[in-house]
Amino acid sequence: MSILVTGGLGFIGSHTVVALVEQDFKVVIADNLSNSKKEVLHAIENITKVKIPFYQIDVADEVSLNRLFESYDFKGVIHFAGYKSVGESVTEPLKYYRNNLLSTINIANACKKYGVKKLVFSSSATVYGDNQVPFDETMPLLPTTNPYGETKTMCERILTDFVQVNKEFEVTLLRYFNPIGAHPSGEIGELPNGVPNNLMPYITQVAKGKLKELKVFGDDYPTQDGTGVRDYIHVMDLAEGHVAAFTHITPGLHVYNLGTGLGTSVLEIIHTFERINHLRIPYKVVERRLGDIASSYADVSKAKKELKWSAKRNLEDMCKDAWNFEKNLSIK
Ligand code: WQD
């Protein structure tokens, strides 16, 4: 029996497929290639030496999704497929609400229709809004500052209500903090569309000379050095967190933070990246970015206790692997 991984060619999805295959899970990938490339499949197969069934389908299209559920006896689903650009979600809110909500509803419906009981959902620390750090899973969710974040909160709500009346289902919501880095092979990593919005891909493109300099969004936050603080987690740790979540899943609804529990500032990231890769990253401090919060980091005790999982890789590993991927980038 296979696990269906939707969005399995995306940044987090592809690394999770590798981690699953390494633990001898059989995987089927569904991805519409809207923000990923077919070459990623070959890269995954190069790493794992396993042929992985791939279907280019849109999970928001119920007919093709159901057809896929009819052809396999899935043992569970890990649902990554979704739009994730914060900025684009502000300018195209309907596109985001339609796609992200519809795909999640279709997945839950298909799970019910075909008796697939295990579902892991890709959520985000953004659902905490501007709560007091560290964020823990019992905190009330606060409004986010953009439609992308709202879709994550709404999908969590949809799945919570679904499990409430379908008690035999096993649903886990994973709230990711800031995934960065890449597989150490350098075969897969983050492939942003156009100019990156997120910090690490921006840094690696400055390092490569594709971009001139990094803009640091504000140095007047109430943090250690005034720049924004985030909980950066190596994407392979995050991927292994999914394997742990899938392995430990039991009936009912479960929520876990996947982070390291450590808060790192923008300047700390820049300096670690420079030191570990022997490079200089030119940067200048500009105005704060609209919608940013000062600090976001996780209380990771619940995942550690219940999933027996915690992040193993440090910031140096993240900076080294992110640069190793960008430096050798063959997927264009
Ligand atoms: C990190 C820090 C910026 C870029 C967002 C989404 C979240 C999740 C991940 C995913 C902040 C600063 C950034 C730059 C900078 N979504 N920064 N210069 O904002 O924590 O989270 O991405 O798919 O839902 O909100 O991540 O990497 O954009 O920013 O100074 O060019 O780096 O201000 O402090 P963020 P980020």
Structure description:
The longest helix has 22 residues, at 93-114. 41% of the residues lie in helices and 17% in strands. By secondary structure, the chain is an alpha/beta fold. Helix 1 packs across helix 8 (235-248) and helix 3 (62-71) runs parallel beside helix 5. Strands 3-2-1-4-5-6-11 form a 7-stranded parallel β-sheet, sandwiched between helices. The two termini are 34 Å apart. It has helices at residues 11-22, 39-48, 62-71, 86-91, 93-114, 147-165, 199-208, 235-248, 266-277, 301-307, 315-327; strands spanning 2-6, 26-30, 54-55, 76-79, 118-124, 170-176, 178-180, 214-217, 229-230, 232-234, 252-258, 264-265, 283-286, 295-296. It has a domain at 2-181 and 233-259 and 299-307: 3-Layer(aba) Sandwich (Rossmann fold), CATH 3.40.50. Residues 84, 86, 124, 126, 149, 178, 197-199, 202, 214-217, 228, 230, 266, 289, 292, 296 line the site of UDP-4-deoxy-4-formamido-beta-L-arabinopyranose.
Poorly predicted runs:
none
Helix content: 40-55%
Are any ligands bound, and if so which?
Answer: UDP-4-deoxy-4-formamido-beta-L-arabinopyranose
Radius of gyration: 19 Å
What portion of the residues fall into strands of 2 or more residues? 15-25%
The number of E-state strands comes to 14
Give the structural class: alpha/beta
Q: Average the pLDDT over all residues and give the rounded result.
A: 97
| Order of adjacent strands in the largest pleated sheet | 3-2-1-4-5-6-11
Tell me the name of the CATH class of the domain at 2-181 and 233-259 and 299-307. Answer: Alpha Beta
- Count of helical regions: 11
Q: State the CATH architecture of the domain at 2-181 and 233-259 and 299-307.
A: 3-Layer(aba) Sandwich
CATH topology of the domain at 2-181 and 233-259 and 299-307: Rossmann fold
| Separation of the first and last Cα atoms | 34 Å
Q: Name the CATH homologous superfamily of the domain at 2-181 and 233-259 and 299-307.
A: NAD(P)-binding Rossmann-like Domain
Cα shape: globular
Q: Give the SSE order as H and E letters.
A: EHEHEHEHHEHEEHEEEHEEHEEHH
Largest sheet: 7 strands, parallel
